Amino acid sequence: MGGLSPATREAGFAALPHADLDLLVVGGGITGAGIARDAALRGLSVALVEAVDFAAGTSSRSSKLIHGGVRYLQQGDVALVREAASERAVLRRLAPHLTQPILMVMPTYGRATQMKLQAGLWAFDKIASVGRDERHEMWDRAAALREVPSLAPDRLFGAAVFVEYLTDDARLVLATVRGAADAGAICVNHAEVTAIDGGRVTICDAFGERSVQASARVVVNAGGPWVDQVRQRAGTRGTQRLQLTKGIHLVVDHARLPIAHSVVMTARDKRSVFAIPRDGITYLGTTDTLSPSPELHPGVTRDDADYLLEAANRTFAGRPLERADVLGAWAGLRPLLAEEGKAPSEISRKDEIMTDPSGLVSIAGGKLTTYRKMARRIVDLVCEKLGKRDLRSRSRDVPLPGGEPGSVADAAALAARLPALGREGAERLWRLHGSGCDALLARIAADPRAGEPIPGLPGVLRAEIEHALDAELALTLEDVLERRTRALLFDRRQGLDGVEAVAAIAADRLGWNAARTAAEIDGYRRLADGLRSFR
Ligand code: FAD
Question: Residue range 106-131: average pLDDT?
Answer without folding.
Answer: 93
